[in-house]
TrEMBL record:
Residues 169-367 form the Calcineurin-like phosphoesterase domain. One of its GO terms (molecular function) is transition metal ion binding. It comes from the Eukaryota. This is Purple acid phosphatase.
């Protein structure tokens, strides 16, 4: 009885203490309050690569530094293809990619396509998108773009074959922008000793729309800024509100124009009919990307797609079910409060039924992690409209703290709601490290700390294989 008895008493004490407190932890971490300022156009991170027609992201008044602006993402459903995208400025050049695996001298060529677009008085460079297919799993590949003119070389590593016990490490970044803080977030991610292998990006990329006429030069600079990571590992894209770029006053009436021309995703591979919602499988994870700014009501294409998609998830093959979206469903800041509510009402019962492990969102420029809660009992008349603890529900994590020009969201609802386990208004990023089919280690890193300091961390127990209570801070009742 001894040990058991002790734990029963300890647990009772914990329960007692928590009966009287409201939510989890509101971090009292103090940081310098500075305005988030965009890096000036002549910053090192925006430098244009040298050489005639060099692959980059447009905007060529600086010709001194070797810099980067190529980006890759997963190119199929299972991780055997990669979409390579880049911009040439002086002339179209070639859309071909030359690639070869580390263990082979046999160089292959993949042919792609190029697109251009105009936005008010801005004309894009030649934007190339080339998909490399039939790659071997778990293999390092080198690739070259800019063939015929200035050729630049990069590399990436393909994921292991999709399967239940494949460890894999994802980075989480959201609402990044291009301020000095954004640069710190990206540097922090790159230097994190847990070594993220793929970034799950939860939307709001460049914040070009904060400039007059949405100056699309800031889309180019963002591409060059992030290239140092995204040319070497895929970033899985989610569309945020700053990708909408709808400005009828200046004749820009097509939503998502810069985003869809610049960032391609493999949406057709998951039978999606639009690039804003889709899924990929990578290692032991099934990742569903949802669109907060596309219709999701009943009968809409996104609704129909998600309905079918959730049936396709096979937890024997991919134990971890991860959802990305931009606008959070559970958010206790006084910014964007309840904006995710209508989508939550539509889809939350499905997430509980299908035991989603974790939902990552952005939009709110701060950090927050919830308990496993759901709020699906409400039927207009029964008054059951409070989140309740639910071990079949996902943990909701807001990671919109990449560091963009709009600054931190510091104003929180008080008291901290019971569903909120930890919240803090600091810039940073997260790592979701899958160990096996039952365990994943999750950690959040604030920019002010050293690269290895976990400001918030928790073990995730898989909802299908190990649905044991993994809550951390308090008990809901
Ligand atoms: C576009 O228009 C703005 C405002 O009229 C002006 O400041 C800018 O120089 C123009 N850009 C180009 C590329 O013409
Ligand atoms: C750049 O490359 C393209 C395609 O290979 C070729 O047609 C063109 O002549 C090249 N331009 C120069 C200046 O080498
Ligand atoms: C951005 O971060 C990189 C890596 O830490 C650093 O080399 C570079 O100087 C920084 N640039 C700016 C403008 O802060
Ligand atoms: C789920 O995946 C496993 C492992 O790949 C496979 O054996 C099984 O047939 C799949 N189940 C369905 C319903 O497709
Ligand atoms: C915080 O947000 C609340 C609700 O929107 C508002 O009433 C309050 O004035 C805000 N406080 C500050 C310090 O901005
Ligand atoms: C899964 O990973 C966890 C954490 O590393 C470990 O404790 C556990 O033993 C592993 N399970 C198996 C079956 O290897
Ligand atoms: Fe946003």
């Amino acid at each position: 009885m001894g040990v058991m008895g002790f734990w029963t008493i300890a647990l009772a004490l914990v329960v007692n203490v928590c009966m009287v407190c409201d939510g989890g932890t509101t971090s009292l971490f103090l940081r310098e309050v500075e305005k988030a300022v965009d890096m000036p156009l002549d910053s090192d991170v925006f430098a244009v690569p040298s050489g005639y027609n060099a692959p980059q992201q447009e905007f060529s008044f600086l010709l001194l530094f070797e810099s980067m602006s190529v980006h890759i993402t997963q190119g199929d459903l299972v991780g055997k293809a990669v979409i390579v995208s880049w911009v040439t400025e002086d002339e179209p050049g070639s859309s071909k990619v030359r690639y070869w695996s580390e263990n082979s001298n046999h160089k292959k060529i993949a042919e792609g396509k190029l697109v251009t677009y105009r936005f008010f008085n801005y004309s894009s460079g030649f934007i190339h998108h080339t998909t490399i297919r039939n790659l071997e799993y778990n293999t390092k590949y080198y690739y070259e773009v800019g063939l015929g003119n200035t050729t630049r070389q990069f590399w990436f590593v393909t994921p292991p074959e999709v399967g239940p016990d494949v460890p894999y490490t994802f980075g989480l970044i959201g609402d990044l922008g291009q301020t000095f803080d954004s640069n710190k977030t990206l540097s922090h991610y790159e230097l994190n000793p847990r070594k993220g292998q793929t970034v799950l990006f939860v939307g709001d990329l460049s914040y070009a729309d904060n400039y007059p006429n949405h100056d699309n030069v800031r889309w180019d600079t963002w591409g060059r800024f992030t290239e140092r990571s995204v040319a070497y590992q895929p970033w899985i894209w989610t569309a945020g509100n700053h990708e909408i770029d709808l400005v009828p006053e200046i004749g820009e009436t097509i939503p998502f124009k810069p985003y869809t021309h610049r960032y391609h995703v493999p949406y057709k591979a998951s039978q999606s009919t639009a690039p804003y919602w889709y899924s990929v499988k990578r290692a032991s994870a099934h990742i569903i990307v949802l669109a907060s700014y596309s219709a999701y009501g009943k009968y809409t294409p996104q609704y129909q797609w998600l309905d079918q998609e959730l049936l396709k998830v096979n937890r024997t093959e991919t134990p971890w079910l991860i959802v990305l979206m931009h606008s959070p469903w559970y958010n206790s800041y006084n910014y964007h409060y309840m904006e995710g509510e209508s989508m939550r009402v539509m889809f939350e019962p499905w997430f509980v039924k299908h035991k989603v492990d974790v939902v990552f969102a952005g939009h709110v420029h701060a950090y927050e992690r919830t308990e496993r809660v759901s709020n699906i009992a409400y039927n207009i008349v029964n008054r059951h409209c409070t989140p309740v603890k639910d071990q079949s529900a996902p943990v909701y994590i807001t990671i919109g703290d990449g560091g963009n020009i709009e600054g931190l969201a510091k104003n929180m609802t008080e008291p901290q709601p019971k569903y909120s386990a930890y919240r803090e208004a600091s810039f940073g990023h997260s790592i979701f490290e899958i160990k096996n089919r039952t365990h994943a280690h999750y950690s959040w890193y604030r920019n002010q700390d050293g690269e290895a300091v976990e400001a918030d961390s928790v073990w995730f127990f898989n909802r299908y294989w190990h649905p044991v209570d993994d809550s951390t801070s308090h008990v809901l009742h």
